[in-house]
Design brief:
Number of helices: 12
CATH topology of the largest domain: Rossmann fold
CATH superfamily of the largest domain: P-loop containing nucleotide triphosphate hydrolases
CATH class of the largest domain: Alpha Beta
Helix content: 25-40%
Number of domains: 2
Shape: elongated
Radius of gyration: 24 Å
Number of strands: 15
Strand content: 25-35%
Distance between the termini: 38 Å
Strand order of the largest sheet: 6-7-8-3-9-10
Length: 332
Amino acid sequence: MPMTKTTSVLTAAPAITATGLSKSYGGKVVLDGIDLHIPEGTVFALLGPNGAGKTTTVEILSTLIPANAGQARIAGHDLTGEVDAVRAAIGVTGQFAAVDNLLTAHENLVLMADLHHLSRREGRRRATGLLRRFELTEAADTSVATFSGGMRRKLDLAMTLVGDPRIIFLDEPTTGLDPRSRRTMWEIIRGLVADDGVTIFLTTQYLEEADQLADRIAVLDQGKLVAEGTADELKRLIPGGHIRLRFGDANGLETAAALFGSAARDSEELTLRIPGDGDIPTLRAVLDALDNASVKADSLTVHTPDLDDVFLTLTGRAQPGAGPNSRKESVR
């Protein structure tokens, strides 16, 4: 019997483990003793407001800067004692595409192959394969200076894959991309995990991105991890789910309000908010109560807490980039 995704995640070997990671600059604590356990072949998303310590975490785990305290193992290698082995196992894609505008897409990839000390034949074979995989073959001999933001991001990630990393750190990889390009990147990231078994450590300012991609999500605030779990687990931490009824006139609103004593009424909008998670038994009970009282609602919507609500509750501020489209509301 094949393993389910949940089972495989629970039993997978750790790709990244960290205990008590801390970092300070001039007396200012940036990371305050965080612990991580990330299984192989999963997507882990780190959320947090600006200045929370997300990029510092990536820089430490990718050997770019040292921690002041704590230990970590990356792909089974000690972060401080086996630096070369760690670097051989990872790839890093930052917030801004690290491509050379003076070169073509193919030349950028071949240059990266040279930096990885691949043979000339292997380097060109890998470059050709990555151009095909990222749908950049037609632009292979075009100067990168003419590329769109989405194409530059794809090339940047392709360059990261030249070294065949088992763990990839993506530090806000879709910042500044339009929605279509962002979703293209999501599909690429899903493919890396599903097809290649790569582990993704993702930082993002887009709550929807974490919701769509991550097996587990951690919220970092002022250098501390304040919550961790699946998207659904985090959402269940936050109260506030409700059923929203809209009526065509004040009489309908008044009658319905008398049926649901715990509901919040908005007389101007002619709406009623009934606490509840919107499951089928709750919806059936609400609709039956309205039918029995011969009251008709013009519309019914169900609101469940989303990652925006989680973020706001845990950090006391809205997440940049969350936007109105991050809220999950279904219409019945």
